[in-house]
Structure formats: structure tokens, C-alpha cells
Task: inverse folding
């Protein structure tokens, strides 16, 4: 049985969900960002107990198919940004349409309606937060960061970074004390 979990966006979330499943006596086949597959079918009581256990962690069990799709899109983008691969080199609209077998316009309109921001803005927000993280770690130079984050140039990265943060990447590096946004709050639109 597949379950979809809202706000499950990091390795820590995956570990916490595994613990909840173990404590609940449920056997999981797969635990991934926003998605869990368990061996058992849940009774309504078990489902409610699981929902409450997840809510105590700041997570939520999802039932609505539209919410599930949005969460899967968000988790796919987060995964793309934090584990750059060939998917980042593909046009986002094409990649998401193929991955979820939905028309991109439908997904985009649904995402904007529910999230209050576009898929593209969500991607940019995620990329900027990842760039902040890479700048703080100080292991890569800006050229290397631009390459792994799939920017066409350092100038493109710098312009987008400054547009979003108000600072150039080099100024941001000087002010490492600027707080990063928790991953689950990145790209949240106005509500």
C-alpha cells in the first residue's frame, strides 16, 4: 500500500517516518521523500493513528489526489536541486510531464492555485537555498556551483541570486550569519 506524506523533505524526515512505522508495527518496502510503501493494508483506525503520529513530527498523511501530486512535484524538484543529475539538464516542464504523466499546464495551474507560487519560482527558490548552503560550506567556488546547479553562466547565477536575496553571492559569503530558510518553507507562496 502506497502512502503519501506531506512535508517529508529531508533524510531526517525519512528516518523519523521509519521510526514511526516501526513503532506502529508496520513493515515498509520503501520510504522516500513524500512517499512510503508498506506491506499492510491499513484499517481506518490504523490510518488515523499513523496520521496522528506523523502530525506529532510536523508531517501529514495525505488523501487528496491533487495534494499528493503537488507534494510529489515539490519533492521531485527538491531532489533535483539537492542531487543534481541529468534531470536538471532537461526542460522542467518536459521532465515533470513525463515523470507524472500529466499535462504540464494542468500541473502548473494546480501548483500555482494551491501553493500561491509557480513551479518555476519554487524551483528558483530551492536552487537559491541550495546555493546559499554551498556558499556557506565553502567547498566549491562560484563557477563550480554554477555548473552543478545547471546555470548557463556565473553571471546568470549571480543575477538570479541577487534578484532573490538582494545580495551578490560574494556579499552573501561575507554575511554567513544570514539565516537560511528551512527546506520545507522554501518556495511557500502567499497564503
Result:
Amino acid at each position: 500500500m502506497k502512502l503519501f506524506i506531506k512535508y517529508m523533505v529531508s533524510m531526517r524526515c525519512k528516518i523519523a517516518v521509519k521510526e514511526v512505522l516501526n513503532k506502529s508495527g508496520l513493515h515498509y518496502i520503501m520510504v522516500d521523500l513524500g512517499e512510503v510503501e508498506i506491506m499492510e493494508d491499513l484499517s481506518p483506525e490504523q490510518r488515523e493513528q499513523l496520521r496522528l503520529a506523523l502530525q506529532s513530527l510536523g508531517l501529514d498523511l495525505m488523501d487528496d489526489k491533487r495534494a499528493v501530486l503537488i507534494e510529489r512535484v515539490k519533492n521531485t524538484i527538491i531532489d533535483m536541486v539537492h542531487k543534481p543529475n541529468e534531470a536538471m539538464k532537461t526542460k522542467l516542464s518536459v521532465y515533470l510531464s513525463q515523470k507524472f504523466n500529466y499535462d504540464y499546464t494542468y500541473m502548473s495551474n494546480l501548483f500555482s492555485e494551491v501553493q500561491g507560487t509557480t513551479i518555476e519560482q519554487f524551483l528558483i527558490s530551492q536552487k537559491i537555498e541550495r546555493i546559499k548552503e554551498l556558499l556557506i560550506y565553502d567547498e566549491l567556488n562560484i563557477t563550480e556551483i554554477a555548473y552543478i546547479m545547471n546555470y548557463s553562466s556565473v553571471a546568470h547565477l549571480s543575477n538570479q541570486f541577487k534578484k532573490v536575496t538582494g545580495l551578490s553571492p560574494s556579499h552573501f559569503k561575507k554575511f554567513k550569519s544570514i539565516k537560511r530558510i528551512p527546506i520545507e518553507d522554501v518556495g511557500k507562496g502567499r497564503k
In short: The radius of gyration is 18 Å.
